[in-house]
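Narrative of activities, Objective 1.

The group set out to show that a structural description can be obtained from nothing but a protein's sequence at a throughput compatible with the screening campaign. Below is one input-output pair from the validation batch, recorded exactly as produced.
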Amino acid sequence: MCFIYTITIILIILVPDQGPGNVRVVRDPNDATVLIVTWEPLNIVEARGFITYVIVATPLTGSRKRQDGTLMATAAGNESMAVISKANPDVSYGVVVSTRTSSDMPGPGETWS
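Output recorded for this entry:
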């Protein structure tokens, strides 16, 4: 007698259900081309595992449309600050801090502009 079994493996990847809170952006007082971005990090339960923060700064026009010159930085999940350099001192930026899991799945973000 021979038995044949089928095994189904389901992989569930958890991503955060919220982004980091209280995102703030200031220009470095000594160098207007540097943006200092801070946020309240997620704790390990909120993060649902190990995450990386992805910080994207996009130049804004009067109509808030995207332009060339988008800048990006990353930070480890236990950090609450990132520095973005090479910003144009005459341009306003919209900044998004979002999360990524170790499997590179995106989570929600919080926007500051």
